Protein 1
Amino acid sequence: MTEEITPELAGLVLDAQPFSALLGARLVEFAPGRAVLEVGVREDLLQQNGFLHGGVLSYAADNALTFAGGSVLGAEVLTGGFTIEYLRPAVGRALSARAHVVESTRRRALCRCDLFMVDDDGERVVAAAQGTVALVG
Amino acid sequence: MTEEITPELAGLVLDAQPFSALLGARLVEFAPGRAVLEVGVREDLLQQNGFLHGGVLSYAADNALTFAGGSVLGAEVLTGGFTIEYLRPAVGRALSARAHVVESTRRRALCRCDLFMVDDDGERVVAAAQGTVALVG
Amino acid sequence: MTEEITPELAGLVLDAQPFSALLGARLVEFAPGRAVLEVGVREDLLQQNGFLHGGVLSYAADNALTFAGGSVLGAEVLTGGFTIEYLRPAVGRALSARAHVVESTRRRALCRCDLFMVDDDGERVVAAAQGTVALVG
Amino acid sequence: MTEEITPELAGLVLDAQPFSALLGARLVEFAPGRAVLEVGVREDLLQQNGFLHGGVLSYAADNALTFAGGSVLGAEVLTGGFTIEYLRPAVGRALSARAHVVESTRRRALCRCDLFMVDDDGERVVAAAQGTVALVG
């Protein structure tokens, strides 16, 4: 049996990731089948044209998918892999990576993540991801 | 006509990415159809179990794919998206992301990237990626 | 300017695909941002264990994604690529591949497809796909 | 312990797939870490513009990846999912899907597949795929 993860425990797991701390990521929502991660835009997260670096988007997608999968499978999960497709340059005040479980079995969860750039005048999808999260062992 | 990119120019592009500087990424090889990016393992790049964070691997895959594509298409390229699959926990001294062009047309390059963890006693593949790089506009 | 595609025109395009005829695929829904393709299960579409072959699912995902993208971009589109993840063996009476546009720009549409197996007692997701459709030229 | 698969056994598995028979697929090479599947071009495998249908390419990629994974993991494997990217219209006399294992653990194999169209005057890559094959159970 897997232990249910509370939003508090999920937040502690994120805080225990030094790389997430380096990027300033926060878990702003965590519920069964759903996880939302936010990263505020900072100068040191950009690429050469002033857009948020694709690597920040792929980090956020990876992590949000994992937390969404963990919300239904428990804490002992690994992301097997994922796909991300970029649609627009990532410009705005913050990145919001919103992941949900499409469907799950006892050992695997198929998850998707929509990546929004949020600005003062609204938000828009800039990328989308899909991946599979599995129980370890 | 696209302008050919020299290794020096490619290095300058990487240096112009604040996020790559934050992660300490270096372009250790750049030739037509090939690009190798290295990231030394540091405490602040890890996840909660002491492995290199998946987001660092996906960053390196994304960027190495883009540089490999740019090596044949020119500097004005964007990565449309990519897939990464993780096979093993990423443990070692440094990450080496080795990308090459599988095939290209005038406007698109299909690229792959093997992600190795390098340690004092050798190296091993921990993940693999594939993506498409396209000319802008 | 792209020409809008009516459901009738979309149906004619599908009928003009000999491979879709071979598989008995039908376009059961077509609206702006959405396309649903159905394939009835037949003995000659199975794999060695009696499940619907993964290749039928990937065919349906590919085609449904393309029609969904075409519903917003016009008839002159190509699917650049897609990802499909399998969650369960595909058992049932028919496959229903339900694709929708997540977000689109003038030239590209980011689409997803949920693949359901439908049986007399209900339906369930067996796989999920994501891909990008682009205007030709 | 997994049982090693001989080329003869692998051929029997392919022959036991009704969908592979419908498409006329043949396993022309099978060795540890490698599998090559061929599909001759026929009128009923095309799409509306006279190219080989993307669904035939995705079928071949899926199946070749699975056989390559099975060559190192044994017969009881499933493909968890895969990505395919199309680079050019598929024109020629036959499709050759050449898959190999990039790296494997005891339970999973990370595989890639290059898809060539073969014609009387040569061959060229038209698509490329990557996926993961895993032991069942």
Note: Chain D is about 25% helix and 45% strand.
Protein 2
Amino acid sequence: MPEWAQQIRKGNVRALARAASAVENRTPAADALLRKLFPHTGNALVIGITGPPGAGKSTLADGIIRLLRREEQRVGVIAVDPTSPYSGGAILGDRIRMQSHYADPGVFIRSMATRGHLGGLAPATTDMALLFDAAGMDAVIVETVGVGQDEVDIARLADVTAVVLVPGMGDDVQAIKAGIMEIAGVFLINKADQPGADRLEREIHAMLSLAHHDGPTPPVVRVVASEGGGIAEALHAIRSVAGDRGGHERSEHIWRRRLLEMYRERLLNRIPAAELDSAARAVALRRKDPYSIVDEWLRRI
Amino acid sequence: MPEWAQQIRKGNVRALARAASAVENRTPAADALLRKLFPHTGNALVIGITGPPGAGKSTLADGIIRLLRREEQRVGVIAVDPTSPYSGGAILGDRIRMQSHYADPGVFIRSMATRGHLGGLAPATTDMALLFDAAGMDAVIVETVGVGQDEVDIARLADVTAVVLVPGMGDDVQAIKAGIMEIAGVFLINKADQPGADRLEREIHAMLSLAHHDGPTPPVVRVVASEGGGIAEALHAIRSVAGDRGGHERSEHIWRRRLLEMYRERLLNRIPAAELDSAARAVALRRKDPYSIVDEWLRRI
């Protein structure tokens, strides 16, 4: 174990790949490894990139990776892949776009699949980001597809999250705002050369002016990711939001959420699926009441 | 206690109102009461109504309540009010629209506010629905605003959820589909007399044809809620979806989720906020690792 951790810290890619698999499969070895590595984390900037399908998140991530590489930063990429009925095609396309970096030893890319964990994707993603952090990555990009529940959970755990939107969303920035407002550190208008970009920007500003923010108002940056336009400005905005938020207080806030997610995951995983099934059956048939069942679970652990 | 439960079952509105407050405030008395009442539940149809702000959910709920009342059904309404920066205005307007029922003793309306419970809104909403069920309501309508995480959690716990959409959402049914596809039992196109209704219907069908469904494909019904058009068809669709799903299997499935939510809420509430804060601080400063902290919590309970 100390050997494994050391190899990871030295930048051994095979040791890192093995660790990433262990983290994704939630093995006990992963827990022990992460415990060992934890003191060496806290250096990477964890950047979330999220938004609706087709918004160009991967092209944008690609552009940001290029810039970071030009600064000789090491970059970890976690592509979160909810087993959505839709994700198949999009994900394949996205991965192909990112393949330009596969040959670059300064970029480590890892996809994460859902697999129906009771505890959700968020704790596994956090662990993966910590692993990359301990392995000496300067930045970890967490790309999530869609704006569902898992994505919001994950984005809340990043240091800063960029929400990517595109023109032509009509009146409907509204519809996605509920989850997004909470997590957006930066808004990126991609495909900003298309008609409707002005309108989208106005809508975002209108939305922001209505919201009661804890911190500063998220900046809105226009990009044309496919041509590399505005990417430097986007990265600058991401970094300055992360900086403004103040290291410690922000970090404590994030750890509050992460600890709860970890606790929750471990607890949910303690109930065997068969037991849960039979409990649900008993309640559905009104043979038992749910309050007594949950009490019993609580007493037992 | 037996007295209180009996009064509720007899339809005493004051006893019910007191119980609803206890449930919302998560008091120990509420737990004991629900345990007592649970054997008398399982009769009400729990209908979720969700969708983006401005889709006309309350007007629609209002129409459905009217129909149910014509059948002399007793109806409970739970209006879930996430403390979103946006909800203020919308909620006020919505509540006013429902006030026509406040004078009707066959309709019991209750708003639920978030209040930052660690365990989320879903367990409290489930308990409230069970309370209404035990009080002899034939239907419980759970109306949620927006399509955020809390709303999805809540909708998953209903017997059937109607997702309300309106024309003019552009290409962007997409953007909200991630969370919604999982929970939609019925799609309702409201304001179906407006331009774009055909297009929206095509988009919904296209979306559904791509999805891998467990059960039957959700029906799509057009309504003009403000004029009462299509409401009877909407209610019919909701009931037949609830019926098709097969009482038991569906009920077991829902109870599986509900039990986990209840378990999760009770566990999360066991960690005092001050302790969570200081743990988060220790981790942010790298004085402790999160894995050891969570282990300690797990050992202690």
Note: The radius of gyration of chain B is 20 Å.
Protein 3
Amino acid sequence: MVTSTPTLEPTAGELTFEELQLAARNRGMPLEALRYDVSPAGLHYLLIHFDIPAVDAATWRLKVGGRVRNPLELSLEQVRSRPSQTITVTLECAGNGRARLSPRPLSQPWLVEAVSTAEWTGTKLGPLLEEAGLGPDAVEVVFTGADRGIQGGVEQDYARSLTIADAMRPEVMLVHAMNGEPLQPQHGFPLRLLVPGWYGMTSVKWLSSIEAIAEPFQGYQQTPAYHYQRDADDPGQPVTRIRVRALMVPPGIPDFFSRRRFLDAGPIQVGGRAWSGAGPVARVEVAVDGHWSDAKLGPPLGDFAWRSWSFDWQATPGEHELACRATDAAGNVQPSEQPWNYQGVGNNLIQQVAVAVR
Amino acid sequence: MVTSTPTLEPTAGELTFEELQLAARNRGMPLEALRYDVSPAGLHYLLIHFDIPAVDAATWRLKVGGRVRNPLELSLEQVRSRPSQTITVTLECAGNGRARLSPRPLSQPWLVEAVSTAEWTGTKLGPLLEEAGLGPDAVEVVFTGADRGIQGGVEQDYARSLTIADAMRPEVMLVHAMNGEPLQPQHGFPLRLLVPGWYGMTSVKWLSSIEAIAEPFQGYQQTPAYHYQRDADDPGQPVTRIRVRALMVPPGIPDFFSRRRFLDAGPIQVGGRAWSGAGPVARVEVAVDGHWSDAKLGPPLGDFAWRSWSFDWQATPGEHELACRATDAAGNVQPSEQPWNYQGVGNNLIQQVAVAVR
């Protein structure tokens, strides 16, 4: 164990060098790419805790063990030859929106761009666990990746758990392909877990082992990380499913440095995507200068994918502020005040876009 | 014309919100990906001045006009059916290293990660220009992309020029595929210019027209942008070929937030890549705590691609500082003092990596 980074308190100060380093290596999706139903693989957002590991597919094995009757060790070919399905899934980083919080928790400084959608191909996890035969005392399944580093003073392979009930859900998969191609290294080659509806930290990349355990998992990434905490002393609530959110493609053209938007007066269609891990998107509204109207929803892409929306606007000369907000079928709606928490997770504050109409 | 962003003076201050916005949408290559001869397409760095445009390949046409005898208009299929070649090319953003300058010019805040290598497939530009028949008064060729926005107060489609001599070089190509696949939208789909050996701003993406002109091009991206200037009043020298540089894969494992590196004592191979737009890499040296030794060069990948290097190090417990520097066949060597300039371009300062050996 190496104590490297002390606990970092949220700051009201300017961006730090450490945050810049993280922003330079992690990757958001430029919002104009919300136009694609399925994000091109090279535009999918990336949050990589440690380094992208070099995994040799020929010698790689997936170990399934712990509290199981029949421990398994599978080659990539064996995983690929199992029954296959492809599912369209929107993933979002739990930290998306962190850098818009005030004070700002210190970690990857996402604004709003850490969301993307891909077509993932693989095999269901449940039948594999049934084959391994979960023991009667198994309560959780731990997924460990090959990426190794230090966080919160703890040296670790990245690892997260699911309860047995969550692990057995039919949409939970082990995936080896993305958008019809083998996973690229940065997306978890050769195999990653995929937990549709949950924030991305759950979908462990570079999967090396699956272990059934008899007590709730206490690894760093499970706790204290990824909790909604009021402050450092609050044990908090675990981060699980993706909170409802809508984002728009910023209309018009940008200024290079300020990213301010400029467009010509006249009719324009504003559009974007909306999603929720708690159920289908039921409604998207758009505000022009504070006046809300319903947007039109496009066809659903699947139970775990974002949904397109559009809104016809008659743009008049002057400065305007556009905003959008989504409501899901469970009745969740995006907040207009920041949902602040100590780790800066789950910030689904309404997006606002200033435009200058000429 | 819209004056949106005033001229921005370099700053000694902290990172600005505008720089964070740029860092969130542009993308560096995590340095561990220096391990790949050819960067996976989804890891290639991206610098996108405006928005990624939506181009319909079915209706897209490449126009070749201006001072030519036979103006051309080519469909993507017509471009693809021309004689084809594939070339391995290292591209680097001219602004790579900008955020390490002090004072810091305000633009995309790259540290050192804006470099990647791909296998590009397309057709030579020269024969196409010969087919169009350059007029006797043509002195430059202007390449215009479909990405539109405002920079320096000027509304523009992104455009850059080459002299006739540079445009006719055999390695200058129009490319429609990257790493064996059609270009992804963010890399210039359906067609981009590729100018091997030059900084990336020259390789215009989303190419829509090629125009021969009788006077040197005065577009914003040609001048005043991309010049080595002492200050705002200095007309400066144009940025052209990539300056010599070596980068290493940071050894050991990282701390998540600080990115500080930790490794175990013992023998370790340190490695990375080196490149130059002015000629082959002739030498790479590695310093351990200020003592320089020669690294071993790997096999060349081609005239315009980076070259691997490695260095065997006996790591001893304690804090160490590693550094690497390259020299090219033209005798250029990386500086140990920052090569400061007003726009923050071409900063090939030696990379230093602090490691804690346990």
Note: The first helix of chain A runs from residue 17 to 25.
